[in-house]
Amino acid sequence: MIGDWLDIGWVNEIPVRGSRTVTVDGAGEIAVFRTGDDNVFALRNRCPHKGGPLSQGIVHGHSVACPLHNWNIALATGEAQGEDKGCTPTIPVKVDGGRVLICRTGTLQAAA
Ligand code: FES
Fold first, then answer.
1. CA 67 to ligand 1: nearest atom
2. Is residue 65 within 6 Å of ligand 1 at its C-beta?
3. Ligand 1 center to residue 1 CA distance, Å?
4. Cβ distance 30 to 22 under 8 Å?
5. Which residue, judged by its Cα, is nearest atom 3 of ligand 1?
């Protein structure tokens, strides 16, 4: 749906293997990650374990290691990896002309 995508800035403003956060009204803080192979993913910025700030974790491959207790969260699905169980909501994201767009409806669903 046109108009439902929020432009949050240039992809080049997100460090490779890093992230930035954006706060969306009604949806809280969203973490937008850029991987080493230049894919972009967006997750709610709360670890499914105890709410750690995933945006401050270390990105490796297509996962992020939570800074609090080192759970590994898959960026594409938000699922905890290995023995750990839990899931962080994902938000649809796309890159268009070098701009990063996140789905506003998706952010609200992630907050629900
Ligand atoms: S809060 Fe993320 S691993 Fe514990």
1. 2
2. no
3. 34
4. yes
5. 69
The pLDDT confidence band at residue 2, using thresholds 50, 70 and 90, is low
Average pLDDT over residues 88-103: 96
**Amino acid letter, residue 18:** G
Atom of ligand 1 minimally distant from the CA of 69: 3
Q: How far is the CA of 67 from the centre of ligand 1 (A)?
A: 7
Give the global pTM. 0.94
Confirm if 54 and 43 have CB atoms less than 8 A apart: yes
Whether ligand 1 lies within 6 angstroms of the CB of 71 is answered as yes
> pLDDT by residue (tens digit) across 21-43?
999 988 899 999 999 999 999 99
Q: What are the pLDDT digits (tens) for 4-25? A: 999 999 999 999 999 999 999 8
